[in-house]
Prior knowledge:
By secondary structure, the protein is mainly α. It is built from 11 helices and 2 strands, in the order H-H-H-H-H-H-H-E-E-H-H-H-H.
Amino acid sequence: MEKQESFTVEKLWLKYQKERSRDIRDKLVLNYAPLVKYVAGRVSMSLPRNIEKADLISYGMFGLIDAIEKFDLTKKIKFETYAISRIRGAIIDELRSIDWVPRSVRRKEKQLERTYVKLENKFKRSPTDEEIAEDMEISIEELQGLYGQLSYTTQVTLNEFWNTSGTKNDQTCLIDTLKDTKSDEPSKAFELEELKQFLGGTIESLPKREKMVIALYYYEGLTLKEIGEVLGVTESRVSQLHTKALLRLKVHLREMLSVLAQG
């Protein structure tokens, strides 16, 4: 039965690539709709409760349609792998467009990033919460509350564009750093390997608990609640650790791209 279903989907893809008909596309959308529900569920775990999961699913459907229309069967990758990043990107883009995060929170996020960079350069290590709070002239409790606010804003999508120089015309999309199995261009392979090594080194430099949260969440697929049970802490504490880890990775990635642009 499973083989028969797989064969049917494969035939749909081949037919769609030839005819590009909306009817066939809609059948593919129906077949892959559970992917949207899965991605929306993962994204919703780091969002405030007033954001409806049903809304996330509707945003994600546009990403799925876009993925189906742009997918290249000749690429040696699974459609599911390609579609998940597109679906997640569509959800995040829509959330940003409706301005669901107050400007004050965005300003605090920028201030926190600047403080982190300044203190890391000063101490040559990751700053502690106490050092960050002192520099920002806020209490530890206020800093913890800020982490809670940022837990649903610190999102990184593979479809996000990053400036690699001083101009808007010179940008790179994170999804373009994924390996193309058909490409033999040495420079691209070198750049990809360099990026992987950089990110790997940055993750290794994270404090022990933050590194464990990243590993369990992104590599093992555990939920924040499940990670809390493993670490023996609350789900909100895991959310804070996750936010801090992403903040550090985001800052380091920006620094790396800045160095590449200058080079």
